[in-house]
Specification:
Largest sheet: 8 strands, mixed
Number of helices: 11
Strand order of the largest sheet: 1-2-4-3-5-6-7-8
Radius of gyration: 20 Å
Structural class: alpha/beta
Number of strands: 8
Shape: globular
Order of helices and strands: EEEHEHEHEHHHHHEHEHH
Distance between the termini: 40 Å
CATH topology of the largest domain: Rossmann fold
CATH superfamily of the largest domain: Alpha/Beta hydrolase fold, catalytic domain
CATH class of the largest domain: Alpha Beta
Length: 360
């Protein structure tokens, strides 16, 4: 058994990276975090958790229940790895970083794809001595990355778990991302992407647009109904006073504006728009795939996830579908991690036996 380490965080230089667009990013850096055991040489104890749109490399900060002491992935048994995405806001090369001319990239940062993000991760992990992965698990944008890992590097990934995502972003999701980006762009504080301070009004609205897809209608109705804002006001008398659900969206927008760079948000949502692995050939030595659809998910409806699992199974992959029941909608993979653990525990330990086909 490898020695146990508590926590390691470092910036890993991976050199120049040629992107899918043909542009070259020089001096790419990836922020890498490792918890728990040192990695085995064969990768048999390594789990990579690519994060969603606003996450970070610090997996235990945002996916508790799935990762942590006595959780599905316990650092006493697993080497848990997180990497801040290329284009992100938490240490890896992205729009807030300095470009070769010594000025921040800002709106000049090139268009990225999920394939670019995964390639930067692969190079960073190789640099720190990790060549193979027992498990790659992610939700939403993290699920895109998990599937990209399996498709691009099937000889390096034993099991990819794709939660609340499938093999492309449907037109509805692209439209929602576009509206959110426009909300940021049209904020007078955006200044064409050369802002000195965050364009908070645009970010608040962008987050509101996104949150309408992250939560289910059932959850909104249960929590808020048509009650006035709990912080005061009377929307029946004053047009600009809020209902409770509007106050919730404002609160989430304020938190969001403190967490992510506006240009990073625009860059990463475009990477999501461009993701499409439909019709790709099955490589030799394919990884095992587990897809998880979430009840009430308005961004990645579970029927689409189920159909995706079917496509990949028909293409020859060992692909299975599992269904997470929840009122939370898309956010359930974070909000109800305990339910996800119960759903996935035997898939992690015993495989996909008996899991396909299953209706959504």
């Amino acid at each position: 058994m490898s020695l146990v380490v508590d926590f390691v965080e470092r910036d890993v230089a991976v050199g120049p990276l040629t992107l899918a667009s043909g542009e070259v990013l020089d001096d790419v850096v990836q922020r890498v975090v490792r918890y728990g055991c040192a990695p085995e040489r064969d990768g048999s104890n390594v789990v990579l958790a690519p994060h969603a749109l606003t996450g970070s490399a610090r997996v235990l900060d945002w996916w508790t229940g799935l990762f942590g002491a006595d959780a599905l992935f316990d650092p006493a048994r697993w080497c848990i790895v997180g990497v801040n995405v290329l284009g992100g806001s938490y240490g890896s090369t992205g729009p807030p970083s300095l470009a070769p001319d010594g000025k921040r990239w800002g709106p000049r940062f090139p268009v990225l794809t999920v394939a670019d993000i995964v390639e930067a991760q692969r190079r960073a992990l190789r640099t720190v001595g990790i060549e193979r992965l027992a498990v790659v698990i992610g939700g939403s944008l993290g699920g895109f990355q998990a599937l990209q890992w399996a498709h691009a590097h099937p000889d390096r990934v034993d099991h990819a778990i794709v939660v609340g995502a499938f093999d492309h972003l449907r037109a509805q999701g692209i439209a929602q991302n576009g509206a959110a980006r426009d909300a940021i762009r049209l904020d007078p504080a955006f200044h064409g992407g050369w802002y000195e301070e965050q364009p908070r009004e645009g970010l608040r609205l962008a987050r509101a647009i996104a949150t309408l897809t992250y939560k289910s209608e059932a959850l909104f109705e249960t929590r808020f109904r048509n009650r006035p804002d709990r912080n005061g006001g009377d929307p029946a008398r004053v047009l600009d006073d809020r209902f409770d659900v509007e106050g919730y969206l404002l609160h989430q927008g304020d938190r969001f504006a403190d967490r992510i760079d506006a240009n990073s948000y625009r860059t990463l949502t475009r990477a999501m728009d461009l993701f499409d692995l439909r019709g790709k050939e099955r490589p030799a030595g394919a990884s095992r795939l587990t897809f998880v659809g979430i009840a009430g998910d308005q961004l990645y409806p579970p029927d689409y996830v189920w159909q995706c699992a079917g496509r990949w199974a028909e293409a020859g992959w060992d692909a299975a579908y599992r269904h997470q029941h929840s009122q939370h909608g898309h956010d359930a993979f974070l909000a109800e991690a305990g339910n996800l653990v119960r759903l996935l525990r035997d898939a992690v330990t015993h495989g996909n036996v008996g899991e396909w086909p299953r209706s959504a």
